Amino acid sequence: xxxxxxxSDPVALRIPVDVLADIEKIASAADRTRSWVMxxxxxxxxxxxxxxILKVAEGLGQLDNGESEDMDDVISDIEEIVRGxxxx
Length: 88
What we know:
Blueprint: H1 17-30, H2 34-64, H3 71-87
């Protein structure tokens, strides 16, 4: 039983000619389609740099929503914990 991946409608994309040439070479060497190579490249980007960008955006959203702690309060809490552990 093979599971089908849900695909979007076609997306038009303009890319530099040299990048497309490399994609076509890779697709030919791997016996894959250009789309397969481009999707793999995008997934790798999204897993690395893209994920970092999304994390930063999430953090900024949390700050905008007031979901943060004052750094001085955090440091004070840590110092109290350390003092409490040192006294034990």
